[in-house]
Design brief:
Blueprint (H helix, E strand, L loop, with lengths): L1 E10 L2 E11 L4 E5 L6 H8 L7 E6 L10 H4 E4 L11 H11 L5 H10 L14 H13 L5 E5 L7 H16 L3 E5 L3 H7 L2 E6 L2 E7 H5 L5 H9 L9
Parallel strand pairs: 3-7, 3-8, 5-6, 6-7
Antiparallel strand pairs: 1-2, 1-4, 8-9
Length: 238
């Protein structure tokens, strides 16, 4: 289980995350929703040990990420904007990650096939399309066959086949009793993938519960999102 408890994070005089608490349960896909600047990325960075909290805790299985002995065997993560060395070949990138966490080399071949990148494994990453780069990032997250997945905008740039692969992967992962935390701006895709939702706006949690609970009283998850966050981008403003 992922447990975020009274998490606070400040950058200078700005509070990015303010007293945030929620849990992500095993066996379910939990969507983490919020407009740009709401605090999603900050929360995920603290959870994954990339930033230090100013207050509260962010735990995975009762432990901080930094205290995990072989973190990739426990948590697989994809953060928006993170990427491999462009000159490195896809398979070499995954092999380097696997070796750093004592993951068997055969797992590289398995995840490349799982995300549909086998034919591109020998190509340099700088020649990958956006969608291929996303597939490689997802493959890296899956390398350790982890109990927990934390994915930020995983379907960004993917074609319909790639989106379907990711959706089926996440649903299957949760069905096997593992924990999935998924951050995305694509409400339609989230509505077809997630079981639960946590909505954040202005650094604070404004709603959490099952997808039906969060959407109650609204014609769709997207409508509920705009109402809860006060984000009016869906009403014609660019």
């Amino acid at each position: 289980m992922i447990e975020i408890t009274r998490l606070t994070k400040r950058y200078g005089g700005k509070t990015a995350v303010d007293d945030v608490s929620f849990a992500v349960r095993p066996g379910r896909v939990t969507g983490f929703l919020g407009p740009n600047g709401a605090g999603k990325s900050t929360t995920l960075r603290v959870l994954l040990g990339l930033d230090h909290p100013d207050g509260g805790t962010a735990l995975i299985g009762g432990r901080r990420y930094r205290d995990l002995r072989h973190p990739l065997r426990t948590v697989g993560a994809l953060l928006d904007g993170a990427g491999p060395v462009p000159e490195r070949r896809g398979a070499d990138h995954l092999t380097w990650i696997a070796q750093s966490n004592r993951i068997p080399r055969r797992r590289v071949r398995e995840v490349l096939e799982l995300v549909g990148l086998t034919d591109a494994a020998g190509r340099r990453v700088k020649g990958y399309s956006l969608g291929m780069g996303q597939r490689l990032g997802i493959a890296a997250a899956l390398l350790g066959d982890p109990e927990v997945l934390v994915l930020d905008e995983p379907v960004n740039g993917l074609d319909p086949d790639g989106i379907r692969r990711v959706r089926n992967l996440l649903r299957g992962y949760a069905a096997s009793g593992r924990t999935v935390l998924l951050s995305s701006h694509l409400m339609t895709e989230m509505a077809g993938t997630a079981d639960d939702a946590v909505v954040i706006a202005g650094g604070r949690i404004v709603a959490r519960g099952t997808l039906d609970d969060v959407s109650a009283g609204h014609p769709s998850l997207e409508s509920a999102f705009f109402a809860l966050t006060g984000d009016r981008e869906g009403e014609g403003r660019w």
